[in-house]
Design brief:
Elements: H1 3-53
Amino acid sequence: MSEEDRISLKFLFNTFIELNDNIQNKLQNVLDNHKEILGTAVKQRKVEKSYRVLKNPDISYF
């Protein structure tokens, strides 16, 4: 393998690493956002259920 090929492969590999890191970061951000939304929905559902079941609603979820 020539020196030029090695340099080219190293550049391509570094580009791949950078793209992979960017994709993983964006996916992690999306996952974190969805976890937050799901957590909020679960809390809201518990509150709504407590309003239907109890005369004195439990608002400790908030």
